[in-house]
Amino acid sequence: MGGIAVAGIGKRFGATTALAEVTLEVAAGEFVALVGPSGCGKTTLMRIIAGIERPDAGQVRIGARDVTPLRPADRDVAMVFQSYALYPHLTVRQNIAVPLTMRGLPAWHRLPLAGALLPGARAARARIAQEVARVAEPLGLSALLDRRPAQLSGGQRQRVALARAVIRRPAAFLMDEPLSNLDAALRVQTRREIVEIHRRAGAATLYVTHDQAEALTMADRVAVMLGGRILQVAPPEAIYADPVDLRVAAFIGSPRINTLAAEADAGGQVRVAGLATGLRARAPGPVTLALRPEALRPAAQGLPVAAEHVEFLGDGLLLHARHLPDGAPLVARLDPASPGRVAPGERLALEFDPARALLFGADGARLPTAPAGVAAYA
Amino acid sequence: MSLALGTAARPRLSAGAMEALAGWALMLPATIAFLAMLLLPTLATVLLAFTDYELGAAAPAWIGLANFADMLTDRGLRTSARNTLAYVGIVAPASVLGGLGLALLVEAGARGRAFFRAVFFLPVVSLSVAMASAWQYLLHPTIGPLNAELRALGLPTPFWLSSSDTVLLSLAAIGIWENIGFTMVLFMAGLTAIPRELYAAAAVDGARGAWDRFRLVTWPLLGPTTLFVVVISLVRALRVFDTVAVLTQGGPNKASEVLLWTMYQEGFTYLRLGYSAAITLVFLVVVLALMALQTRVLDRRVHYG
Amino acid sequence: MTPRGSLLPGAIRLLVLALLGLVFLSPYLWMAAASLKPLDEIFRASLALWPENFAGVENYGKVLARVPVAQYLWNGVIVCGGILFFQLLFAVPAGYALAKLRFPGRDIAFGAVMLGLLVPPHVPALPLYVAFSEIGLLNSYAALIAPFAISVFAIFLFRQFFRALPDELLHAARLDGMGEWSIVWRVILPNAWPAATAFGIFSVVAHWNDLFWPLIVVQGHARATPALGVLQFRSEEAGDDFGAMMAAAVLMTLPLVLAFLLAQRRFVEGIATTGLKG
């Protein structure tokens, strides 16, 4: 019993490479979010898994079967589209039933009129009606079954699309930004429901989104995609705290991670504008020091900055400042009770916890770090 | 009236009154032309239909429904109505189905799309009188290329436009040739309006082949287009005139007599304007009935609002 | 895979299309071929498209010598141009008023437009003929143009188009001190080009090809439109001279077909969009 596995997927559109050597696995019962900025290739990958798009290279396996040459209909996948893609001429009931009627009934049963008269058709239809009732109930669609999509709100349409996806108990669910057309409040509520649906169905779910908050809150593992490549696949905590690539670190987290140009000296000591940081790199050379906003705090000694302004968030403060030696912007997330007023232009020092500092090489790859002992800021 | 009246020096009328004046002024030219060229002549046609008005004859008399009673017994008109019905019955369905088929076929691939669209659309923009002459040559019983080919194949060579058995069919074929490009581009416009996501959804939902996709997505979503195309094809076929006027003049032996040709003959050849107006009125009623069918009955079934 | 799905593999699709295309083009091919052939070749009914003896000069020469081809085409230009000019002159302000201004009687006016859409042009033809004949205007450009000067379809089309224009555009123009009349011609019309082009193509194609009305009001060559010209040449001059006949047909068909081939996309879109809204 496998989930979804893609290996070595490549896809070009004319001269542009949409996907390069993409490999990703979603185990049965697992929820993986594929996150990246728009145009990074995540929707293309999803459409290749569904079979709507053909890859130029690579293999797609669903439920331990190689489905690369198969049509979407034969792949045992269900998909929720960003636009929901409901059939406007069918009622909610009929929309939800489509995956069953298309598969469950042979073509001649589906002909108008004739279908109703053929033996076996009645039993098949009764079974379909039962299934529709089963999936409609928990989604709160029971009262809406005879409406057409045009008579539904955005949230209701979204539920119909979900119901249509779950009715067939497929081996894999594909969801393409299913929440992006909902308003903010509904989005947060529906996140939970989708996770719940996923748990009940127990299939492999691949969830495409450009919203990192969705990815981090919903998924068992997050795959970060940029420029047609998957840079990292890891649980949400690891993606946030332990990114393997500077681009992943920069994409995940809001406010964005702070980056400072730094230099490892001959002894491996990492210095920012000459200031020793207490971090040690394995080899000398230019590196990037990346610091989450919550890793910074005001102190007597540390990175010299000029404050620019302070944003009050309710549960915290964001201090926007400029690193004095090179003018790089820095954001620190502070305890609301902490510093009192910081006036624009005020100079102060920010220290950071070396255990939470990240180092990246010139090529963006993560470098291992070791605290250099107590001699920080010397 | 606004309370601001008189407080502002220059605009002596309220903004609402100014807007109304502007609206009337802008409508005025169109209204005059509408009355003179459309409304009054149409009403006059309706009135004429109840008179025995003949151009050049004595003052017209009101004869009530006599023209319509005459129409019921007029064998020529009955032939004309039957021919028109047959013509519409062939041309309209063939134009709709043919146009849909061509649109699907042309849109099914990228290669040659613009070229073939142009080829099938060409008859729509061609001077129909001139093309009728070309058809006359093509269908000529002795020197026409079509019969020359049939002869070469050893097949019978009908007198296409000069035999009462085939004349209506020949005219219908020309009518289909003239109309199909028009219905095709309407269907193409309808096809491009179908969201592509629906085809992807259909594929994932289990649509395996072209027929499944057509049944589940294309056909239902083309509903409004199809309804419109059906009605406009019926009306266009009902209006057949040019080919008859050029090629057969209703002949041979009234076998291609159609409604507008009869109306034209009665009105402008025999100058029996009253009778001609009565025929026109019947024509108008049929057109209005088709439009009513579109809006009242069928619209509800194809719009999924 | 293509979403619309090919019923047939690509090669078969092209083959079917090519065969159908050939059928559709055959009247044009044979028309052009016959216009270049001498009479005896035409009467031999050979299946060769290309003439053995080239008689194009004779055939086209005959047409040009016997009927005023240039006059027909010129009449066509005047009539179509005149019709389109008046249609726009009347319909653009009316469409704007119906779309953007509030005035008593607007709903009645729009109702009249919608009703007018249902009336085929053949219906008012009889009384109009009588009227033109009474005031001695038969055989004139006025008789050819006037009945079509008002197009309820154009009013409807422009009204739909103008409703989609933002009101801010008009408010800004009014703040700049423009009157409604100058708003129509200086703000609205420049924004109406897409609708005007589409309608213009629709109108010109319809009236260039119209036979019914010219046949009623015009006798003789002086005011004959191209459609009428072909008919006159046919009945008066050509007889069984198919070579000359086809040459005349080619000459009269060519202008619009050339215009179509040069601006295919606009033609198809113009007629499809106006068609769908009508």
UniProtKB/TrEMBL annotation, chain A:
InterPro entries xrefs: AAA+_ATPase, ABC_transporter-like_ATP-bd, ABC_transporter-like_CS, ABC_transpr_MalK/UgpC-like, Mo/tungstate-bd_C_term_dom, NA-bd_OB-fold, P-loop_NTPase, Transp-assoc_OB_typ2
Annotated SMART domains: AAA
Keyword NADP on entry: no
Keywords, in A-Z order: ATP-binding, Cell membrane, Membrane, Nucleotide-binding, Translocase, Transport
ABC transporter domain: residues covered: 4-252
PROSITE patterns per the UniProt record, alphabetical: ABC_TRANSPORTER_1, ABC_TRANSPORTER_2
Annotated Gene3D superfamilies: 2.40.50.100, Nucleic acid-binding proteins (2.40.50.140), P-loop containing nucleotide triphosphate hydrolases (3.40.50.300)
A Pfam family reported for this protein in Swiss-Prot or TrEMBL: ABC_tran
The keyword RNA-binding is annotated on this UniProt entry: no
UniProt GO MF annotations: ATP binding
Similarity annotation: Belongs to the ABC transporter superfamily.
PANTHER family, sorted: MALTODEXTRIN IMPORT ATP-BINDING PROTEIN MSMX, TREHALOSE IMPORT ATP-BINDING PROTEIN SUGC
Protein name per its UniProtKB record: Glycerol-3-phosphate ABC transporter ATP-binding protein
TrEMBL record, chain B:
Provenance organism: Paracraurococcus ruber
Name this protein carries in UniProt: ABC transporter permease
SUPFAM superfamilies associated with the record: MalF N-terminal region-like, MetI-like
Sequence ranges assigned to domain ABC transmembrane type-1 in this UniProt record: 81-294
Major place of residence: membrane
Keyword Amino-acid biosynthesis: no
Family: Belongs to the binding-protein-dependent transport system permease family.
Membrane-spanning residues: 21-50, 85-106, 118-138, 167-195, 216-238, 273-293
Membrane protein topology class: Multi-pass membrane protein
Alphabetical UniProt keywords: Cell membrane, Membrane, Transmembrane, Transmembrane helix, Transport
One protein family per Pfam: BPD_transp_1
Top-rank lineage group of the source organism: Bacteria
InterPro entries, per database record: ABC_transporter_permease, MetI-like, MetI-like_sf
PROSITE patterns from the UniProt entry: ABC_TM1
Keyword Flavoprotein: no
Annotated localization: Cell membrane
